[in-house]
Design a protein that fits this description.
By secondary structure, the chain is an all-beta fold. It is 0% helix and 46% strand.
């Protein structure tokens, strides 16, 4: 079994700083990590969420988001405003069910959660997490393909945007796993169907819908605030104008991860190594 601990290295020298491997045997490096500058937040395949001291690698807290045993998983974390948010999926159920959870970032105490009811009984209704933020809202997609906006403080619902079910020809029978990014005041949402949609972040109104026909949107999109950069299932990296959904350019099959965006460049990992591209 591969080592899925969390490793820290000193940026100036590359020397190891610390390793976090909990005594429970959990794999805290299984999903994307996020940080608020003080703590690092990790989800696990065993329903546990961790807050890790960023300076020392010591465990500050652990919260169980479901029964242990491997069927319930705490997926991708997001953090803002003193809260850390996780998507939770119970894979012991068919269809999959789950919820979206807000924890106090300093203590791991649960603040609120939302259980997703599926749009139709045969659809999955868990949540992979990967939430994004706009004003005082946290925005996330459920497994059935709908997009939800909640008040960060209370979990009260603000708006729900519909799925692509019945609107595109290749909607999967179990649902649609979708990743999001906020560019200015537009939430750009990918889809297993290969479509991208632009939503008004204030009220969830659809502004545009487009597909470059490159397969599913397999990874988290990133943005410079004007352009959204999306990797598709075939490895193509595409630049999409956030305001219109227009395809600006695309690469060949080079990318296997979401790109890092800087002022002048994009950095992306692929099967043949790492690439630097001019924006």
């Amino acid at each position: 079994m591969p080592d899925v601990s969390v490793y820290a290295y000193r940026r100036n020298t590359g020397e190891p700083a610390w390793v976090f491997q909990p005594s429970s045997g959990d794999r805290p490096g299984a999903f994307r990590l996020v940080t608020d500058g003080t703590l690092i937040f990790a989800g696990t395949e065993n329903a546990r969420a961790y807050g890790i001291d960023a300076s020392t690698g010591t465990q500050r807290w652990m919260t169980e988001l479901g029964p242990p045993g491997g069927a319930v998983k705490a997926f991708y974390a997001s953090v803002a405003g003193g809260r850390v948010y996780y998507g939770v999926r119970d894979l012991s159920l068919n269809p999959v069910r789950g919820r979206f959870v807000a924890l106090d970032a300093a203590t791991g105490t649960e603040v609120w959660s939302h259980i997703f009811d599926p749009e139709s009984p045969e659809l999955d209704s868990g949540c992979l997490g990967g939430a994004v933020f706009f004003d005082d809202m946290v925005i996330v997609a459920a497994d059935d393909g709908r997009v939800y906006a909640f008040e960060q403080a209370t979990g009260a619902g603000r708006w729900v945007a519909p799925s692509l079910r019945g609107r595109v020809e290749n909607f999967d029978a179990t649902g649609d796993r979708r990743w999001l990014v906020v560019a200015d005041s537009i939430v750009v949402v990918g889809s297993d169907t290969g479509y991208l949609i632009g939503l008004d972040a204030r009220d969830g109104t659809q502004l545009w819908m487009n597909t470059p026909r490159l397969g599913s949107t397999s990874y988290h999109p990133t943005t410079d605030g004007r352009v959204v950069y999306q990797v598709f299932a075939g490895g193509q990296l595409a630049a999409i104008e956030a305001s219109s959904g227009r395809l600006l350019w695309r690469t060949g099959a080079i990318a296997l991860r979401s790109p890092l965006v800087t002022d002048s460049s994009l950095y992306v990992g692929g099967s043949s190594g790492y690439y630097a591209l001019r924006r």
